[in-house]
Description:
By secondary structure, the protein is of the alpha+beta class. The chain has twelve helices and ten strands.
Amino acid sequence: MPAWAPLTRPGLPSWRPGALPVFQLYALERGESLDVGWVPAHDFSYIMARLFRTLGLNGITALKASLMVGMLLLGLATFAWSRRLWGDRAGILAAMLVVYAPVFLSSLYIVGATGAVWLLLGVSVWGWAWFLNGWRRWLGWFVGAPLTMLSAITLLRASSHLQTPTINLLFEAPWFWATSVIQRQTPLAWSPGLPLLALAIMASWLMASLARKEGMPHRRAMLILTPVAWLLLFSATALPVGWAWLLILVDVALMAIIAASLLALQPLLKTPAQWAALLIMPLLAAGPALSPTFQRYPIPEQPVAWFGPKQILLIDAQMPSPPEPGSTLVMNAYWQATQPIDFDYNIFIHVTDDAGRMVTQLDTQPQLGGKPMTSWQVGEGIPDQYTLNIPADAPASLHVRLGLYNWQTGERLRLSDGADAITFEK
């Protein structure tokens, strides 16, 4: 429960995609798709979220509900797989080791890789089906294989900003002792978790010592699975970052099954006190990954504008009252950087008449200079407010235009449709 409990908080996790997954969900409902490589449209989370949308939930709640369901199903599938091999207590331990693996939780709450949930679910269903018989085995493979492959494709597309892990990062989360909560600037934890790895090492050693004994449960399958799992883990450091990420996530499920076998190989660990201690270890390994920060801001069904090459997103812009002669115009805006920004662009707001003549204008840095764009973190929601006094002798019909420009050259940053500003009609 603590793994998905953060999703019950208001708003979205402070993950790197920011509001983009919600906009992608709304776009898919319209039969469209956001052309954003790092937020793939073919994520199974959107299929599940659209089912929740039929119940009247908004996009944010529906997306989080789909992830909660996915994590519950992941725990159940891992439990069923390990239980089939080693029994109930081993099933619970394996489920805990998977769901609380630092690499899994940080992939979700930092990177915003919702596909990680469904990748691990597909692997667990596929592995469980391997030990079933008849039509149930084929049904499990029919569900697990495409779920795994589809999720793998989405994760490969979302891995462009990650850095290839080194061997030491496989055994430790670099942020574990440095922070009490994880945020979007926190690096991804590549480690499956020290408890998982320690238990898997112990189980592998016992399996090796019992390898020639026919009485070892599921001897043939485990003698194949164990070396494969360790080979996948260490080969990840020599592969491109996307493939390394996939292998480590897949290996979390495999290692959890190996680790859970320790209860069958060493029956003393089934005593209540020993078993309870084993269950606490994954929670401790998760550390700050169970306390992600969240951010709340309005997310309409479509973004207001997208500036530059998919670089700066204007999530929402609202004027409490329309522009009128002699009034004060107030605009509340929410921005997001979808890529690193290398220049502190100015924001301009022009109020014009029907002929395009300037009535009044505002040129400013975000938050009056308090939050220049080069300081924006990718995925961070930036609230801002702009105030303009409209002359009393202004014409009755007024238009408001907003845009960004390079204050050194005067060149305006183009919108995705080629325009140099967005116009808000009265």
